[in-house]
Amino acid sequence: MATASTSKPSFGGRNPLADWTEHETFVLLDAWGDRFLKRGRKSLRSDEWQEVAEKVTQESKIERADTQCRNRLDTLKKKYKKEKIKLAESRDTTSKWVYFRKMDMLMSPAPKQPGLSCGVDSGEFVFMNPKVYLNRANGLDEMRDSPGNSGSAEEEDSDELPPKRTRMGKERDDGASFRLLADSIHKFSEIYEKIENSKRQQMLELEKMRMDFHRELESQRRQILERTQAEIEKIRQGDNEENDLSAENISG
Fold it and tell me: Per the record, what is one GO cellular component (predicted)?
């Protein structure tokens, strides 16, 4: 009996059903990530997982079941958490893992801005949104979305909360927190500067429009005065001609 693996040749002993190429993995992350974000970082429904599997199958030309996609994503989540812990314990700010940037974009909630969760310019621009905190909770819930997680409940329940470390590890965490705070303040200052520049640009445009309006208004006013003076002059000339004719008739 022919197995499903005959649907695509195997190169170098690779089992296409068990192994995932980099391209297939990114297709999976794109398909799952789009639905994950649209649902507000909530777990996907069964029919949505089926759509993800169909998308991966279409791109990879290999029949992928939704359970295979769930298991692959579960593996990626576990690897992602390990990379997060590794970065927190070291002085590195970036991971060499090829999928880290994509996973971090999908799994990490929007960064908190300590002390800056308020409006700018009397509420015209709001920097933080209450949905951020809901998305954070939903993001943690999604970490338990895939099968195979029941056997590692202790690991999954500690999402984004690394275990207790030594004093040195705590100092490194504090350093990472200060760097995150500094980066957040820097990003906020950039956003504020962009807002101020935008307001200045709008004020310049409004001032230009006001000057153009006044010039146009002044031009129309002069035209009206000129036409009025011309009409008055015509009326005066007409009166003078009538007076001259009347004087000639009387003298005649």
Answer: nucleus
Yes or no: say if 155 and 78 are a contact pair by the CB < 8 Å rule. yes
pTM confidence score = 0.42
Residue with tokens 């001259």: 244
| CB-CB contact of 56 with 69 (8 Å) | yes
**pLDDT tens digits along 154-200:** 444 444 444 555 566 666 777 788 888 888 998 888 899 899 888 88
Distance CA 184, CA 195 (A): 16
The H-assigned helical ranges of the chain are 22-38, 46-60, 66-89, 100-107, 131-142, 153-156, 167-251
Q: Tell which residue, 125, 107, 145, 6, has the closest CA to residue 62.
A: 6
Query: For residues 139 and 156, is the Cβ–Cβ distance under 8 A?
Result: no
Q: Which residues contact 50 (CB under 8 A, 6 or more apart)?
A: 66
Other C-beta atoms closer than 10 Å to the C-beta of 81 total 20
* One-letter amino acid for residue 163 of the chain: P
Domain boundaries, the chain: 16-148
Find out whether 109 and 139 touch, Cβ atoms under 8 Å: yes
Residue (of 130, 119, 116, 139) closest to 39 by Cα position: 139
Each residue of 123-145: b (16+ CB within 10 Å) or e?
A: eeeeeeeeeeeebbebbbebbbb
Of 125, 133, 134, residue with least CA distance to 188: 125
